[in-house]
Amino acid sequence: DIQMTQSPSSLSASVGDRVTITCRASQAISNFLAWYQQKPGRVPNLLIYAASTLQAGVPSRFSGSGSGTDFTLTISSLQPEDVATYYCQKYNSAPYAFGQGTKLEIK
Amino acid sequence: EMQLVESGGGLVKPGGSLRLSCAGSGFTFSRYSIIWVRQAPGKGLEWVSSISTSSSYMNYADSVRGRFTISRDNAKNSVYLQMNSLRAEDTAVYYCANLAPVNFDPQAGLWGQGTLVTVSS
Predict the structure, then answer these.
(1) Which residues from A are below 8 Å from B109, CB to CB?
(2) Is A87's Cβ below 8 Å from some Cβ in B?
(3) What is the mean pLDDT of each run of 10 residues along chain B (121 residues)?
C-alpha cells in the first residue's frame, strides 16, 4: 500500500510568515492529492483538491503544488485563524491513506 | 443544504457490535463513493473503509478487515458500517465523507459531523 508522509509534524510560526508543509507519497499518485484543515474540536475541511485547486470559499493565501510523489501546501501569510492541524490524503485508489498530520501553531 | 449525518455510535463492551449509519441529503448521493474515517482521541485521521457508487468495490484498512463490513442503499441515500468484535483501539469519532473531486464539483469533499464510538468494559 502507498504510504503518505507529512513533514514537519508540528510547526510554530509568526503571523504574516510564509508557511510550507510537505507531503510525500511512497509511490506516484499523479495529482490525486487533497489537503484538509482541521481546527480544534471541528470536522476536517477540504482546502485543496487535485493537488493545486483551491476549494470554493478557501482564502487565496492557501495554495498547493506538486505531482507524482511530492506535494506542498503553502500559506502565503499566516493568520491567527489558520491555527489547525493539516492533513494530506491520496485519493487515486483505495486505501485512501492520510498523512499523519501537521499541527500549526502561532509563535 | 448538502450534508452527511452519521448515527449509531455509543458505548459498547469489548467484543460487542455496533452499526453506524451515514445519511446523505441535498446532493446526488448515488454518484459518490463514500468513505469512513476515524479519529481516535488526540490522534490523526485514519481511513477505515470505502464503498463505490454501485457497491461493486468495498475496501478496508488492515486494522478492521474481517471485523467491519460496509454497505450502502442508494434508495435510502445511506451507507452503513457494521462493526463486530470491537476492541478498545476502535474507540474513535467515526466520520463518513465523500472523496475530494478530480474536477470542480461542489458536492464533493463533504464530511459529516461524526459519531463517537467508545469501546470499554
Answers:
(1) 34, 46, 49, 55
(2) yes
(3) 97 98 96 96 98 96 98 98 98 95 88 98 96
- The pLDDT score that the predictor gives to residue A56 is 92
Return all residues near A69 (Cβ < 8 A) that are at least 6 apart.
A24, A25, A26, A27, A28, A29
Q: How many helices (H) and strands (E) does chain B have?
A: 0, 10
* pLDDT of the residue at B103: 87
pLDDT at A27: 97
Query: Which positions in chain A touch B112 (Cβ < 8 Å)?
Result: 43
**A82 phi, psi to nearest 5 deg:** -85, 0
Instruction: Please state the rounded mean pLDDT for residues A7-29.
Output: 98
The dihedral of CA A104, A105, B4, B7: what is its sign? Answer: positive
> In chain A, how long is the greatest CA-to-CA distance?
38
Nearest 5 degrees, angle CA B75-CA B98-CA B39? 120
Alpha-carbon span A73 to A89, nearest angstrom: 12
Mark yes or no for CB contact A96/B99 under 8 Å.
yes
> What CA–CA distance (Å, rounded) separates A65 from A54?
11
A79 within 8 A of A61, measured Cβ to Cβ: yes
The beta-carbon neighbor of A97 closest among B47, B111, B112 is B47
